[in-house]
Amino acid sequence: MKIQGVAILGSTGSIGTTALKVLSRHTDRFRVAALTAFSNAQLLSRQADEFHPSFLGMVGDGAGGGGGGERAKRPSSRMARHATWPPDAGF
Hints:
This protein is of the alpha/beta class. It has three helices and three strands.
């Protein structure tokens, strides 16, 4: 069976962290190919150390710690134009 690459957008949020827990139990079927976060750079860094994705993306400035109750601002359309996937991302 071919291992499927998965991108987790918002990996530091509650749904993203839950998805990563599920994926970590199924390493025979899935690998984390990409992770993105809005502002929690510390958690994104820990996730990168654990899952070794081919792509990491940070939308905000990385200063947020998550869980602060602040509403996230929508990323600009400019951000999407600058995102690229390396050929070996595995999607």
